[in-house]
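CORE FACILITY INTAKE
Project code: CF-77B
Contact: R.S. (postdoc)
Sample description: multi-component assembly, three entities in total
Requested service: structural model of the whole complex
Turnaround: standard
Below are the sequence entries exactly as provided by the requester. Do not edit them.
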Amino acid sequence: MLVRVQTWWTILRICLEERLVYRGDFALGTLMRFLPIVTQIFLWTAVFAAAGSGRIGSYTRDEIVAYYLLTMLARAFSSMPGLASGIGRQVRDGEIKKFLIQPINLVGFLLLARIAHKLVYYAVAAAPFALVYYVCRDYFPGWPEGEVFAAFLLSLVLAFLVGFFLECSMGMISFWFLEVSSLLFVYMLFTFFFSGHMFPLEILPEPWLTIVNFMPFKYLAYFPAAVFLGKVQGLEMVHGLMIQSGWVVFFMITSRWLMHRGFHRYSGFGG
Amino acid sequence: MSKHPSYFGVFLTFARNSLIRDMTFRANFIIEAISSMSWMIMNLGFYTLVYRFTPNIADWDKYEFFVFISTTMFVNSLVQTFFMPNAQELSELVRTGGLDFALVKPIDTQFLVSLRRVNWSSLGNFFVALLLLAYCVPRIEGLELTVWQMLLYPLYVFLGVLILYSVMITLAATSIWLGRNQSLYDFWFYITNFSRYPMEIYEGSWGTPLRQLFTFVIPILVVINVPARFMAKPLSVDYALLAAFAVLATILCLVGSRWVFKRALWSYRSASS
Amino acid sequence: MSAIEIHGLEKSYRVYQKKEGLRASLTGLFQRDYHDVHAVRGIDLDVEQGEFVAFLGPNGAGKTTTLKLLSGVISPSGGEAHVLGHVPWKRENEYRRRFALVMGQKNQLWWDLPAQESFQLHQKIYRIDPDDFRRTRDELVDLLEVRHLLGQPVRELSLGERMKMELTAALLHSPDVLFLDEPTIGLDVVAQHNVQKFLKHYQTERKITILLTSHYMKDVAALCRRVVIIAHGEIMYDGSLAGIIDSFSGHKILSLQFADGRMPSDLARYGDVLEIVEPKARLRVDRGSIADVLSSVLASYTIEDISVEDPPLEEVIAEMFARSAEKKQVEPVGAGVTSLESDDPARS
């Protein structure tokens, strides 16, 4: 157990150092990620100005801005840059062999590495995030009640898990198709559009709204934001959390199953 | 004997070589073409959705706004085809020492470095934009297309591309000083993000100074706004003035960026062997 | 007027220190240590048209930097130079058309395309007459024996074949001056030999001026009569290869074979004993005393075989570098100075 913790700490420290080498890049980069929100604010202000009713769907202009800020936070949890492509690369380069012979579970290892990565990221990104949120505090409708907030935090953690296992499963496909970049790209596009990163999903007309509800993507960004803003309440919120957990379990099983099938197929090559 | 290279001939060879190269990676080519088009289509989807809730955005009706979007597509596809791959490669050239080879050739270095690679797959968007434009223009109420508009539109699209090129090459030149710098390219992306919307949305105590900044200091708002307005809206006096300014801005940007580039080359250090 | 004239050429860089550890990385955000590296410290050199000169020196000596200064890739911190009457760092097109640069293990040809496409590009850029171009290209590829590889993508060629293509590309426009930076580095023995053979032939035929940098003795010995030794940014020697030993070596190597199986035990009084394998011995003897040592040995012992040789050239040169390093109290070359690249936080 102690050894495990020590390993964790070393990985963490190395990740942090590595990130800090990108000095100027880093500080600037985190703040700049918020720049598109500025244009969104102007855009939606103009939209609302002409819309007349003061609400689009159930959102006021301020709520939409808060929504974007919240989806950025949710994406900080659920986005997994380089996960699927990393697996693809390891398969291509043959590095994956070590997971066949060593007593390390590939998925477990990746999960650990990703958690370390994220912790580092949060530690350093917390300040820019806090700054932006503070500056934009007027757009938020106020803190939600205790249990809603707890649900929000839970949904963030679940979003991380959904994102991780989903993209992990995508990565496993590289056992079958060496060039996954095209598939990954389509996946990224889907994620961007259908996760609610671009706009609050509830404004979609039918049949799109129903289709989106059946896909896992909305739990990556839209759902946590909607919980915080009170757009999904009470029983609906609990249901949402349950479905979100369901997706976690589903992709967790899928990724492990794919991994085993993949290893099977891979060792058949005798590389 | 001072024979200057035929710049046009050299450029054709660049284009040809790039095409041959892209064709050898056919699968990649198709994927890239599809991905850039998908992105554009998603954007169209988004705005179609928004227009269900509002009749206009900052005085731009639905079809007028779509003309705006197609102008964005024209400009972006041209920039991505001719200049983007080269700007990205510049920092690689610096890192690997490949810039040394560019510097010993008897041809203008900025020309060589800016046009070496042509990314043909990004041209897909150009054609989608043509289709979109052809679809929308007839649907704008009260618009009667004049010859002037049809001539000035492509001209101003071209000027817009040149302005974006200047910004791009200025940023890329800094990689000669700073080495690889990813955030600089992100910077380009975020800055040009502002140019994708009609300048009228930038209003108010924050908006107006922002609009001034991006019109007169870093004139990116001029890039898409001017040609789009030409095509979609009736001509007005202040717009004519802005259009004249656009010409001036293009010239200043090109001159300024060339100066930065030359300065960067002057202090080039070259990678150690 | 010489083809290449250099006076007092200098080049210095500022290098930022990168330290290890978390704390250092954090403080590095605000303040950095730096020191200045003097890559070239005042070089004077004249090279006539048609000469084949080698720059020899250890890594970091300044050979490549000098070459880059002469090809206009970088500009100096001081001093002046003229190549074919031009100031290189002005980067005039008239100048650039008249020379070529080839760097070992660095490619300028398009990676994914066959070499012949890159050659076409060269023709356009240098505005080479189509007939001249065809003739020159055919000559070169035949000499280098790479004609059959013209249609293959460059990435599929071996290192040696790629270098031959690079050489072809460089010579297509018939330059008057050729700068070669470590052209045989990384090549196998056969490829090295081929490149050397080609260069010798080409230079003898065309009488172009060639500056070659290398740290391989064999390149130099095979090709050039004039050798310029550079260390720590300065020229230490400029002359023939043979002359190096005369100027710099203070020793001779004495090899003795003793008769009657009788090996003396006090050989050390003659000089440094390098090796004793009965009945042979090898000694390093001071130049000045070689005559005395010889007469003494011959008088005292029965010698079956004797020979007096110069020490290997590499040793002489290495000794020379070491001595010069001491004199300057400079760190041994290579340590401490990690790179001469501009500060880049993204690179380790």
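Facility notes:
- Chain A touches chain C at residues 13, 16-17, 20-25, 27 (CB under 8 Å).
- Chain A has a mean pLDDT of 83.
Invoice: internal transfer
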